[in-house]
Design brief:
Layout (H helix, E strand, L loop, with lengths): L1 E5 L3 H12 L3 E6 L15 E4 L3 H14 L3 E3 L8 H11 L2 E4 L5 H17 L6 E8 L9 H13 L5 E3 L8 E8 L6 E7 L4 E7 L4 H14 L4 E3 L1 H5 L1
Parallel strand pairs: 1-2, 1-3, 3-4, 4-5, 5-11, 6-8, 7-8
Antiparallel strand pairs: 6-9, 9-10
Helix pairs in contact: 1-6, 2-3, 4-5
């Protein structure tokens, strides 16, 4: 399989050896200093994109233009999803997007929704989320924290929205974002009462789990059009 790497930072360099190990060929290594055009994707079977929120949509559109399916690990651009969906349909593009490619985190997403349903009738417990990442992470809160928040809001009564700060408002779900050193990613869901606290915790020890998930998503996307996510891959 011939794969273009859009973004050759920490994640791109983590993905590269996994691609080589699995017998794939890298056709492009694009970075800030070496931007790419749609024509540069000629001959690629799929692209993997890990860059920055402000650049992700333009990169997706170039992949659509080149008729190359793209796996996007960048988060923080989702407010433009309606635009991307329209263009994907018009141009018969292929997009795989996920807030987190780790298998463990996607298990956490499912358990989080189940726990929110269970806690719905226990008003003495107050839900909150904390996420910790390395200082180079650009978006806040993380896409993973937003997905966790959405899972709670869909299943837990009386919370109408999330905000990126702690809160005592019973109608809002607080997300505390911390940026520390080289932390790959830690996410904590808490239900706190006056007498105890329940926690769901996922702590990434390195980026390998994210990288392997992205490569598996790229293998999944060969020859596909439409929009897919981790549920499709895991199914």
């Amino acid at each position: 399989m011939k794969i273009a790497l859009i973004g050759y930072g920490k994640m791109g360099k983590e993905i590269e050896p996994i691609l080589v190990e699995r017998g794939h060929t890298i056709t492009l290594r694009s970075s800030r200093s070496t931007p790419f055009k749609a024509s540069d994707l000629a001959g690629s079977d799929v692209a993997i994109e890990f860059t920055e929120p402000h650049a992700a949509v333009d990169h997706i559109m170039r992949c659509f233009e080149a008729h190359v399916p793209v796996v996007v690990g960048t988060t923080g651009w989702y407010t433009r999803m309606p635009e991307v969906r329209d263009m994907c349909s018009q141009m018969k593009g292929g997009l795989f997007t996920a807030s987190n490619f780790s298998i463990g985190v996607n298990v956490l997403f499912e358990v989080n929704r189940m726990l929110a349903r269970m806690m719905g009738d226990l008003s003495e417990y107050k839900p909150s989320i904390e996420e910790i990442h390395h200082t180079a992470k650009r978006d806040s809160p993380s896409g993973t924290a937003i997905t966790l928040a959405e899972g709670i809001l869909e299943n837990y009564p009386n919370r109408n929205e999330w905000i990126n700060e702690t809160t005592d408002d019973d109608h809002k779900l607080g997300i505390l974002s911390r940026r520390e050193g080289e932390v790959p990613g830690t996410h904590i869901v808490r239900y706190t009462s006056e007498v105890d606290e329940i926690q769901l915790v996922h702590q990434a020890f390195n980026r390998k789990g994210f990288a392997l998930g992205a490569v598996k998503a790229a293998e999944f996307m060969i020859g596909k059009s439409g929009i897919f996510g981790m549920k499709d891959l895991l199914a």
